[in-house]
Amino acid sequence: MGTTQLETVPEPKYWHLRTVLSEALDSEFSVGEILPNERDLAARFGVARATLRQALEQLELEGRLQRRRGVGTTVAPPRVGVAVGSEQHVWPGAPGDAWQPTDCVTAAPPAAVADALETGHEVPVHTIRRTRGTHGQPVAAELLYVPAASVPDLSAIDAPAGAARARAVLRELQRLDLDGQD
User: Fold this and answer.
1) I need a labelling partner for 50 at 20 to 30 A (CA). Which of 37, 38, 57, 128 fits?
2) Residue 11 confidence (pLDDT)
3) Are 93 and 113 in contact (CB under 8 A)?
């Protein structure tokens, strides 16, 4: 692992680092692998440890990492079987707080996700990013990986990318009979 300097971008530094770390998790680490310590990671990316901690905390909230005292930070296995519907779940916060789809891209998933979904490693999936807010502030983010074959009628929908495509994929999933399935 060499040194990687972060480029200057308009988003907060910790958020950009989260994106870079997420890509590194997909390409350099396997599920269950322990990440280098904070000092080494901060030096690798040329950031303060506080910035690194913010990025790691976000990845932990997204379910990409597991942090345990005495063990370290490990790459978490992908979650399978999360609720994708629009119904409101019990969530602390203001009335009307909800998951909001923000983006959708179609590409080959990380190897661990392909294994969990039992698809080929090069078979494209819809990767939906959605955020949860409370009192007008984002408090959680998650990625949903949906095999393209799970939503075969999606091609008829004119939603090429972004939040509109994410909503279209989720809408098609709601139409499927998924009771009792993961």
Assistant:
1) 128
2) 77
3) no
